[in-house]
Every structure is written in structure tokens, then in C-alpha cells.
Design goal:
alpha+beta; 212 residues; 34% strand; Immunoglobulin-like; six-stranded antiparallel β-sheet; 21% helix; 10 strands; four-stranded antiparallel β-sheet
Length: 212
């Protein structure tokens, strides 16, 4: 191989390594926030939960739950992901026993709504019956934050010990901010998703860095 070819190959390899390092730095900068999985037995999030009076009675095991924010090296959008959503055996039994009258929902909230907004793209391995939807513009403006949920009208389909996830694509912020708060929540209601509701806020975090 000629000297010129060797130099070109070395330059390409160095460029690839540099790109990988930059990608890792960007992801690390905006990935996990703080205060994930606050409903675990070790660090309960008091005052924000109403899971039938017993933490985890229908909700995920927060020892595994983890919410993240990733930019994926894409300046125009971010991805918010609620991962490692794992139900225990007792929670599965409750969902099975009450599946004829009750339904379960997973929710993400982004405060405040003027910096981020759901753009429609999503992915999940939950046994969903209605895919991710955001609130209407008027309601979001009134409440001051973006709210996106996914519905599971047949909660018996949720299996204990399995890692579920769901993620949504959101517009990047309009201005640099580290104050935006991100929440994840499990809801448990009648089939209409409007009556006899309980909720369990499973995680909360803020963006780590000032980045637009």
C-alpha cells in the first residue's frame, strides 16, 4: 500500500474515532437527568403518589424504571424514553383480577410546554390499545405543559418481570434551558380513563445542561 493510501486510511480512522467520541460526549451531556425512579422502596416520592394507597399495587417496580432524554445527535428533535418498566407478580395479579373494569395508562409530562412539544413519533412494546397522543393545544396552553399518554385497556396482557418501554419524539427547546422538568407516570382508571383514577408518578428529572 502506498504512503498516500496509508495516510488516507489513517486520517479516515482518526476521523471515525473523533466522531464517535463527539457522539458519546453529546449523548452523555443530555442523557439521564436526576431523580429517576423515585418511588422505589429505598427512596419513595412522598406526596405525589396515589397508587390505591399502596405503592406499587398496580404500578411498575421503580427499582428498574428509568426515564431518559436523548438528542441522538439530531439538533432539531429530542427523544424522551421511559425504559425498564417492570411490573412485579403482585401487581400483575391485581391487573389480571381487575382487567374487566379497569385500564392502565403510561404518561409523560414536559414542563413547561413552550420549550418542548410532542411531534407524533413514538415507539413502545407495551400491549397498547391506543397509541401515544398529546393533549389538544388549548388544554396544553391552559395547563402550561405538554402531556402525552398511551393506553392499555386490557391490563391482563402485561406480564410480570418483563422490561417494557415507550418513547416519544419531541421538538427541541426554543431556548437554552436547564429548568425544564420531565415526569413519567402510571395511571389506573376505569375503562373510560376518566373515573376512579389513581396515579403513580414514577420518575422526575431535569435536563443536565444548557443546550439548544
Amino acid at each position: 500500500m502506498s504512503t498516500r493510501a496509508l495516510r488516507s486510511l489513517a486520517a479516515f480512522a482518526l476521523s471515525a474515532v473523533t466522531s464517535a467520541l463527539v457522539a458519546s460526549i453529546v449523548l452523555a451531556a443530555v442523557d439521564n437527568g436526576t431523580q429517576n425512579g423515585l418511588d422505589s422502596a429505598v427512596a419513595p416520592w412522598l406526596g405525589k403518589d396515589n397508587p390505591d394507597g399502596v405503592t406499587g399495587s398496580y404500578s411498575v417496580d421503580n427499582g428498574f424504571q428509568d426515564a431518559t432524554l436523548r438528542e441522538w445527535i439530531e439538533p432539531a428533535h429530542d427523544w424522551m424514553k421511559d425504559g425498564f418498566m417492570k411490573w412485579g407478580a403482585a401487581a400483575e395479579a391485581k391487573l389480571n383480577n381487575e382487567t374487566n373494569t379497569r385500564a392502565l395508562g403510561a404518561e409523560m409530562r414536559i414542563h413547561d410546554q413552550t420549550f418542548y412539544n410532542f411531534v407524533g413519533n413514538w415507539n413502545s412494546n407495551l400491549p397498547w390499545s391506543k397509541g401515544a397522543e398529546g393533549e389538544n393545544a388549548a388544554e396544553e396552553l391552559f395547563q402550561g405543559y405538554t402531556e402525552v399518554d398511551i393506553e392499555v385497556k386490557d391490563p391482563w396482557k402485561i406480564n410480570a418481570g418483563f422490561n417494557y418501554f415507550w418513547e416519544i419524539k419531541i421538538d427541541s427547546e426554543k431556548a437554552s434551558t436547564a429548568n425544564t422538568q420531565f415526569y413519567t407516570e402510571i395511571e389506573y382508571c376505569n375503562k373510560d380513563f376518566a373515573t376512579n383514577c389513581n396515579w403513580d408518578e414514577t420518575g422526575r428529572f431535569r435536563k443536565r445542561v444548557l443546550q439548544q
